[in-house]
Amino acid sequence: MSRFLDGISTITSIFHKYAKEDGDCSNLSQRKMQELIQKEFADILQFLEWDGDGHIDFNEFLLLVFRVAK
Ligand SMILES: [Ca+2]
User: Fold this and answer.
1) Do 59 and 48 contact (CB within 8 A), yes or no?
2) What is the pTM assigned to this prediction?
3) Cα 47 to ligand 1 centroid, rounded to whole Å
4) Which of 7, 20, 22, 68 has the greatest count of CB atoms below 10 A from its CB?
5) What is the four-CA torsion angle of 50, 66, 56, 39, rounded to 10 degrees?
């Protein structure tokens, strides 16, 4: 499988995993979405917090915004 299709498959599987735990395979509650972000994006958040002070400062936050908007 190509990396692109593999990525789409992974994203779909993760969504359905959390949606299924929430009782409805087609929707995520706000609580489950928060859980998904905290667990599945922990590595990204750790990467963003590059100065190691344990907080996301405005510069680190802007880095995220620019990467998402890119
Ligand atoms: Ca920081």
Assistant:
1) no
2) 0.64
3) 10
4) 22
5) -90
Please, how many CA atoms are within 13 Å of residue 56, restricted to the half-sphere of its CB? 12
Q: In this structure, what token pair is assigned to residue 34?
A: 């928060």
**Distance separating alpha carbons of residues 62 and 7, to the nearest angstrom:** 25
pLDDT of residue 42: 84
Q: What is the pLDDT of residue 9?
A: 93
Amino acid at 39: K
Distance from residue 65's CA to the centre of ligand 1 (Å): 15
CA–centroid distance, 52 to ligand 1, in Å, is 5
Give how many domains the chain has, as a whole number: 1
Could you identify the residue written with the tokens 């993760």?
14
